[in-house]
Design goal:
homodimer; mainly alpha; Arc Repressor Mutant, subunit A; Tetracycline Repressor, domain 2; DNA-binding
DNA sequence: TACAACTTACCTAGTGAAAGGTAGGCAAGT
DNA sequence: ACTTGCCTACCTTTCACTAGGTAAGTTGTA
């Protein structure tokens, strides 16, 4: 068994740590400057590597981007799932929890806000990813909303599909205003007002 | 007086036409690729000029960006003002008209969607512009909403400030989904559903 | 357990292709 | 006589990515 001083480690451990640091740094720069604006050199440096050192782990900038997105998306999905289970039948509370959590991770919120806008053009490497992601997210929201409507939690006179679109739009839109003025904007409170509009009387 | 054949024109006329073509081309490429991703050479070519030819009219890429934004913002403000007057006291109808109009100009909608996301980082040349624009827009919305509340058009149990934030968020958020899937998404319809939530019963 | 053969992680140095902007000129317009 | 609109040619920097090497870690075999 190899010992575990910082200098002598197993390769698998080194690799894991490096990839992790790279992904972390990539999030930082992609979220600040988008895919196009981010420089591999900066990401590499923040991860404690040189540029070719980074490219040893991820064959190209595009691969790095997709890896970041897949990874983050996976974690996101898990967390949402967890919150929904945790709140049981209180769907509105679960929605609020999601927004409350987002309000604690501006970097990640900005990552998606910046990248989705950049990828509106069909040629962007992440375009298909985001189209899919939105379809999936809305479909999942429809399920939750329908459940809440049947439980009498959300007003039932509106189509779940429409509400899912609005819910998605509100979250995205609030994030933009919040990221522009983090001090002023209370995203959680504003979202709460929206949820109130949906409550079955 | 100069004659007006395409080749021999007055300088002022040539200048005006060139600037106009440049601004038009700039909108096209800024909206597709953002500020960073747009290439001056492409914009120049689309305007029928070389790169230095373009730079004769706008001293730098950044100047061109700000000019585009100021110009478009001015026109936008005017149109919103016009719609509000036209609809008189029907504020909700006016809001719907604004969205309906936006649905006919995807290029312009994308311009702002892409640029605001890119400019979330404080160092972006358009950052201050967008912070101001959002403050102004919301303030103007607050006025309209308040008026509609007093007229019994919008439910009065909610703060106009909160509703202005939500209205802005919904518009922005719907635009993202619409630009991602222009065929599928009916932005106007979805916005109508939201407006219904606000109607005084 | 020892050591040779290999694989892996990462580096230095370099390449080539953008891309924004400059210098200076020329011809048309004033 | 001058100013303006636009061009050709050029410069500089940036940036993703490649070539090739080195040292550390890993594995197979006696």
């Amino acid at each position: 068994m190899g010992n575990s001083t910082p200098y002598r480690r197993t390769q698998t451990e080194r690799t894991r740590a490096s990839r992790e640091k790279i992904l972390q740094a990539a999030i930082e720069f992609f979220s600040k400057n988008g895919f196009r604006g981010a420089k591999l050199a900066d990401i590499a440096q923040a991860a404690g590597l040189t540029e070719p050192g980074l490219l040893h782990h991820f064959p190209s900038k595009t691969h790095l981007l997709m890896q970041v997105l897949d990874e983050r998306d996976r974690i996101d999905k898990q967390r949402v799932q967890m919150i929904l289970q945790q709140e049981g039948n209180h769907v509105l509370e679960a929605f609020q929890d999601i927004v409350n959590h987002n309000a604690t991770v501006p970097g990640l919120v900005q990552l998606f806000t910046v990248l989705v806008a950049e990828s509106l053009v069909a040629e962007h490497p992440a375009h298909a990813f985001f189209v899919q992601r939105y379809q999936r997210t809305r479909a999942s929201l429809v399920e939750s909303i329908r459940k809440a409507q049947q439980a009498g939690e959300i007003r039932a006179d509106l189509k779940a599909e429409d509400l899912a679109i609005l819910m998605t739009a509100i979250m995205d839109g609030l994030q933009v205003q919040w990221l522009l003025e983090p001090e002023t904007m209370d995203m959680r409170q504003a979202f709460g007002v929206f949820l109130n509009l949906l409550k079955a009387k």
